[in-house]
Amino acid sequence: MLPVITASVPLLEPPGWAIAQRQLFDLLDHAWRRFARDFTGPDGRLLYNDRLTSRDGVDDFYETFFNWPQLYLLGGADDLLAASERHWEGVTRQLTELGMLHEEYERGYDWFHQGESLLLFYFLCMAAPERWTERALRFADLYVDPAHGNYDPEHRIIRRPHNGSDPRRDGLFDGDAYPWLPKEARMYGFPLDWVLPPGAEPEDPDRDPRLGAEMRRRMGVGDTAVNLAASGLVLNALILSGEPRYRDWIAEYVGAWRERAAANGGIVPDNVAPDGTVGGLLEGRWYGGHYGWSWPHGWYSVGHAAMVGALAAAAATGDDSYLDLVRPALDEVIAHGKVMTFTEADSSLESKWSVQLEEDVRTPTLHVPFRYGDRGWFDYNPMLMAVPTALWHHSAAVADRDRLERLRAAAGYDWRMVRSFRSKEEAGHEEPWFAFLTGDDPGYPERILAAAQAQVRHRLTRMERYRGMDVPEADIHVWQQSNPVVTEALVQLTWGGPQVVYNGGLQQARVRYYDADARRPGLPSSVAALVSRIDPEATVVDLVNLDPESVHRVIVQAGACAEHTIRTVRHTVCDDPSWIGDMYDYGHGRPAVTSGEARVDGPWLLVELPRSTRIRLTLELDLRTSPPSYRTPFDADEDPS
């Protein structure tokens, strides 16, 4: 039986954040049903009648639904899980018919996109492990088992940048020329620009065979840094199975990249030749690989993949020194930062920052270089906060928090500003969330929930515009842009975690919840949660039962995967819970609220919430005391009922 605490503080005036949170859940329930009705077929596939003419596109189909099972895990509707599973199955059949998959898996493409494709799958595994384990192990074995042709254990490399279930898919493209369009050349420059004579450019960049031949020879084989995101797929299999071979593969593969980074002054290189040498096909350059430091978008792709690999290795082995795969490169990028306005920068991500910064595009602030080439560091942008935030959240280290404080001090804009915008990652509000967690912005919960509502309503309107449209291949992003499920605010406020690292990461969280009576993950209906502090010695969680009639029982779990231990919990206690009916109407004042304390020594705590009550829990956590697992408190040995 789990330790039990019963809330006793009466709820008289529900906090605004609690009401807004439950309203967001209700709005999201309406929104996902509308999207499913208007944009998907009976078997869950997307309404699409075109064909795909390149290797690109698989990610766009799956990404549309990536956070639907995440919403279920947060406390979304009971039937949302079945709907999410149906959409995965339908899209998988659809993509198989389009020739993009083999045995339900990507035939061969880069891991910048594969990582995006798999987020939906990872959340399904977390939500229903019993139904998804077979697939998860089969997919991971494509990399762990060398017989499939993706992994070279002698050199500890993934053999090619485009990899997956079809070992015959080699190179980076089909045909003679890489489809590098003129608009891409203007925005990003040319890959391997040093191969051409000084001042020369391909005559016709979308057809010139010189560029394609050099890219096939120099970039189409060997390992590349974004392949580190494959460690997320293998970690998912480890969490589901506990089989040591998955742990060993992660340690071996990520460990090899950590050694290469250490030999390169701490900066992770982006390419390894088939013989295991860094720069072996690029005349010694540690940069220039596919989706690497010189490619769009440099740090955005390399940093996210390295973060996925570092977190996977730390989770698999318990050794946080793997985080040093990321820290030196991050600090190097920051060290080359310059204060400027965004309008002065040479950014290749204008569309992203013009929305996220709005009027602050003209405010001088720290910009850091995302890319590196023969001319040195270039492509200056404001710092993307996903990686430094994920580092701090995992480690709780003083140095990782200090880095965030330094970045905040260098910013020319107010980190407390909350804007309603859509990023591809369903993220981007790490700065105001951090300000809230430091106690500097108590109004953040209501503002971020309002921003989330605004995005849902905006996307519902956008859906009206595109409903019934025959989507051509060029516009397949319209589904992602219309997806009305927004989860960043709920992840931050209820789980005390950042949004998942988008290019293939697994969820981070200080706490998660289960509905003890419905025996499913997520908050019960009418219950709201707020994590206002995530320090291990004092992780603070408020639970509110807005239901005026019913008791709800909530199981609080330490960590996204029960990897932490709750040592003790301090909680608010009302001296006289009967006062609300007997005394309040007569002006006798409120009763005293004191603190109780209980020992837990485990990953789960059961909280009983009588009608119209609230409770504040202050959890003392020991981080990463157990291997991550998708086990639930309803397993036989832990069942609270």
Name a few traits of the molecule.
641 residues; 6-stranded antiparallel beta sheet; 16% strand; DUF8034; 6-hairpin_glycosidase_sf; alpha+beta; single chain; 5-stranded mixed beta sheet; 21 helices
Question: How do the helices and strands line up, and which of them pair or pack?
Answer:
Elements: E1 4-6, E2 9-10, H1 16-39, H2 58-63, H3 68-74, H4 80-97, E3 101-102, E4 105-106, H5 111-117, H6 119-127, H7 129-144, E5 151-152, E6 157-158, H8 182-188, H9 209-219, E7 223-224, H10 230-241, H11 244-263, E8 271-272, H12 299-317, H13 327-335, E9 338-340, H14 350-357, E10 365-373, E11 376-382, H15 386-395, H16 398-410, H17 430-437, H18 444-466, H19 478-482, H20 488-495, E12 511-515, E13 520-521, E14 527-535, E15 538-545, E16 552-558, E17 565-574, H21 579-582, E18 593-602, E19 604-609, E20 613-622
Parallel strand pairs: 1-19
Antiparallel strand pairs: 2-20, 3-4, 5-6, 7-8, 9-10, 10-11, 12-13, 12-16, 14-15, 15-20, 16-19, 17-18, 17-20
Helix pairs in contact: 1-18, 3-4, 3-6, 4-6, 6-7, 7-10, 10-11, 10-12, 11-12, 12-15, 15-16, 18-20
